[in-house]
C-alpha cells in the first residue's frame, strides 16, 4: 500500500464534493445517464484496446497499491531480514525458515521454494520469470489507466455535445436553457474528474511503483541466492549494497 | 478475433446511441451532409497519406481482429500442438501431417511446406520473410487508423465551422439559430465518435496485437524447425520455452 | 506520382466545397483579406524557419508526388529492368544501354554514367551522394510542410482574434454582429483546411515516400554495380533480393 | 540560489497582481473556496503520484534554488579553491584543512571526511553515492513540479465547470450571471497562474540546475582525490579541465 | 544573417498590422497594460527557467541570425578560401596570412592563432572547445525561445481571464461589454503573435542554423590543420570533401 496515494485519492474526492455542495444542493451534480455515457464509453474504449485479463490485472494492481499490506518497503529492512534468515539457515538448515515470518509476498514465495528443496538454479530462474512477468503486467496496467485517462475526457465531451445538440434542437422554453446546459456540462466534469483525480495519477503511480518493487524483487533474488549458498553475512550485505539508494552512513561502513 | 475488442466496439456504439435517443428523437442526430464532410474529409486525408493498398490492408486487419477466427491464441496450446505434430512425424513421416488439423493460418502454411518437401532452410527463410512482412503491414495499418483518429476530429471541426459561418451570415430568423447550431455541432460529434470509439483504440489494439502475434509466429517457426529435424519432444519444449510468458509452474519443471 | 495522394487531395477539396455551397452561396466563404492573413502569416513563419532554397525544394517535391510520372514504382519491375540491361550489356557492351528506355530518373542517370565510361567506384560514390542528398532534402521538405501545418491554424486563430476584436470594439449595429463573426471565423476555417487537407498529410506522405524511394535508389545502385561487373543474372537477383519486401513465392525460388 | 529565478518569480507575481488591481478592486480576484479546489485538487493529484518524502524533497529543492546561499557556482573558483586546499595539505597535512572556509556543502562534506582520516576509496565511493542520490532526488523533484503544472490547470477547469453548473442550474436572477461567471472563471485563472508562473518553469529550472550541480559535484570529487593523493597543482588543474566549459583562454594555456 | 528569416519576420508583422488597420483604426489593437502582462509574464517565466547570461546569449544569437553579416555561408567558398590561404602560406609562411581577408569570424580567429605561432595541437583543441561551447550555447538559446513561445500564449490567456473577470464582475453598463471583451481578448492576440510570428520559428531556426554552422566550423578546423601542416591543396580538398553536401559534379571529380 502507498499511504500517500490513498490519502490523495480521498482528499481529491472530498475537496471536489465539498466544492459541489457549497452554495447549492449537491444533487444538481448527479446525473445517471450522463455518468453512464462517460463511464460506459470509457470502458468500451478500454475494452477495444485491452483484453479482459489485462483490465482485471490493472484493477488488481490499483487495489494492491491502495489497500493496506504488510509487504516490507524499506530496502534496509529487507537486508536485515535476509541477514536473520541467513544466520538461521546457516545454524539450523533451510527447513527452519518455514516458521519465520517473511513480510513480503515475493520473498515468502522464494523462501518456500528453498524449504521445498528446489535447486538454486530452479529458484533463480523461476523468480526471474516471475519478476519479468510482474514488470510486463504492471506496464500494461499503467497503459490501461492511461487509456482511461485519455478516453474519459473524450467521452465527457461527447456527452456534452449530445446534450447541447438535444437542447439546441428544442428551444421552445427559454427558461429551460440554463438547467439543460448545466446537465450537458456535467459529462465534461465527470470526464475531467475521472482522468485527473484517478486515472492519470494512477498510471504514473503504477509506473514508478513497479520500478521500485522490481528493484526490491531483484534484491530478494540476490538475497535468496546468498542464503542458498550459505554465504557469510558480511559478504551478503556487500552483494546487496548496489540495490540500496541511501547506503548506511560512512561511519557504519568503516566502523 | 479479440472478443474484448468486439464487445467494446458494440458497447460503445450502444451507449452513445441510447444516450442520443434519451429525451429526444434520435433523428436529430442524423445529418447526411455533415456525415459526408467528416467521413469524406477523413478518407481524403488518409488517402493523401497512404496508398490504396495500405488502406485495404488496414481494413482487412481490423476485420481480422473483430471477426471470429479459430486461430490458436494460447502459446501453451501451440507447444502442445507442436508436440502432437512432432510425435506424429517422428512415427509416420511428414506426409501424415497433411491430415492434421492445424488451427493457425501461419502454422498451417508452414506445415504444408513441410509436407510439400521443401528444405528446412527454404521454409525458415520464407516464413521469416512472411513474419517481417506481417509486422510491416500491421505497423502501417495501425498508422492508417492513427491518421483516421487525427483527421476525423479535424474535419468535425471544419464541418462545424462551415455550419456556423452559414448560420451567422444569415440571422434573419432568430428562432432558427438553435437548430442550426445543433446541426453545425453534429460534425464535431461525428468526428469525436469516429476517433474515440473506433480509430484511436483500433490503432492501439493493432499495435499490441501485432506484437503478440509476431511472437507466436516466431515460436511456430522454431517449432517447425524442431519438427523438421525430428527433435526429441522434451528438447523442443525447452527450445520454445523462452517464448512463453507464464511458464509451467516450478513443480512441473522439476517433476 | 502517387495516385492515391492526388485523388485524396482532389476529393477533400471537392467535399469541403460542396459542403460550403450546400444551403447558402459559396461566396460567403470567400474573404480575400482573411485568406491573406492566413496564407501570408503561414508563409512568413515558414520563411523564418527555412531558407528560400529549402522551401522551393519542398514545393518541387510536392509536385513530384502529385504530378504523373513514368518512374517505376514496383521493385520487381526494377529487378526485371536490371536483368534486361544486364543481359544486353553482357552481349553488346555498355554503349548499347544508351538506347534503352529506363523509366526511372535516378536509374537513367546511373546508366548514362555507365555509358560515359566512368569507373565503378566513381559511379557508386556519386550515386550514394545523390541518394544521401535526396534523403536530406526530402526530410527538410517534410519539415517545411509540418511547419505550414502548424502555422496555418495559428494564423487562422490570429485572424479570427483580429476580426472579433474589431467587431467587439464597434457594436453600434447589432444586426451586423452575425455576419462580422462569420467573417472572423473564416480565417480559422482557412487555417484548419490548409493544415488538415494539405500540409499535414503531405508532410507524412513525403516522409513515407522518401523511405520507399531511397530503398529503390539503393537497389538501383546495387543493380548498376552488378551490370558494371557483368555479373550472372541469377547472382544479380540474389544480390537485390533483400530489397524486395514480398519476395517471389517459395515455389519460384525452389523451382 | 539562482538570482534570476528569484527575480522572475517575484516579477511575474507583481505583474499579474498589478494587472488585477488596475481598473477594479483586487478583491474580486480573491475567492477562498475556488483557491481551495485548485490547490487541494492539485495537492491530491500530486499525492497520488508521489510519496510524502518525494514531495518534501521537491519543496526543499525549490527553496534551495530560491533562497540565497554561499555555495560556489563558478567552476573556475572551485579549481582555485582546490589549489588552495591542495597547497595547504601538501605543506601541513590534511588536518589543517578543517579550519579552511569551504563555501560548498558537498565540498565541505568531502573535506571533513578527508580530515577524519577516511581512506580515498571510502571517500570516493561515499561521495559518488551521494551524487547519484542527489541526481535521482532532483529528477523526482522536477517530476513533482511537472505533475503540479499539469494538475493545476485541470483542477482550475474542474472548478470552473462546478461553478458554471451551479450558476446555470439556478438562473432566477439574471443580474447575478455576470458575477457568478466571474467567480467560476477564477479557478481557471488560479490554475493557469500556478502552472505558468511557478510549477512548469520550476520543473525546467530544477532539471537544468541539477545537471550543472552534478558536474560541479563530480569535479569536486576529482579535486578531493587529487588532494588526497597530494598531486602537483598543475596536474590537478589538468585533471579538472574537462569539467570547465569555458576554459582559460589560449594565452594562459600556452604561457 | 539569414535573409529569408529577416524577410519572414518583416512580412509576418506587416501582414498582421495591415489586417489590423483594415476596416478599423489600428489604435484599438494597442493596449499598454495588456502588452505589459504578456511581455512581463513571458519574461518572468523565462527568467525563472534561464539565467541572465543564457537569455542574453539567446538575444545575441537572434541578432546574429537577423542582422547582415559577411560570414561565408557556402561551404565550397570555404574550401576555395582554404586553398588560397594554403597556397599563400606554403609560399610565404604563416605570417603573411595576417593580411588576408577572411570573411568568417571563427576562421579569422583560427588564422590569427596560426599567425601568432601557436602549435597545431593548441589551435585544434582551443577551436574544438569553442565549437562545443557554441553548440551548447545555441541549444540553450533555442530553449530560451521555445520557453518564450510556450509562455506567451499562456500569459495571453491569463491576461484575457483577468480582463473577462473584471468585466463580468461589473456589468452595470451593457454597452461597455463589447469593448471590454475586445480589450480582454487583446492579450490572447499578443501571446499568439509573439509565439507564432517570432519565438517558435526563431527557436526552430536557431536549431537548424547551429547544425549548419557547426559543420562549417568543424570544416574550418580541418582546413586550418591542413594549412598548418602545409598539405598539398588536392589532398586538402579531399580531406574537406565529406563536409560538402553537394559535391562538385562527377565531371569535375574525374576530369
UniProtKB/TrEMBL annotation, chains A, B, C, D, E:
It comes from the Bacteria. Pfam families: MotA_ExbB (PF01618). The keyword Membrane applies. It is found in: Cell membrane. It is a multi-pass membrane protein. One of its GO terms (cellular component) is plasma membrane. The chain crosses the membrane at residues 7-29, 35-52, 142-165, 177-199. Keywords: Cell membrane, Flagellar rotation, Membrane, Transmembrane, Transmembrane helix, Transport. Its main location: membrane. Residues 100-214 form the MotA/TolQ/ExbB proton channel domain. GO terms for biological process: bacterial-type flagellum-dependent swarming motility; chemotaxis. Belongs to the MotA family. This is Chemotaxis protein PomA. The lineage of its organism: Bacteria, Pseudomonadati, Pseudomonadota, Gammaproteobacteria, Thiotrichales.
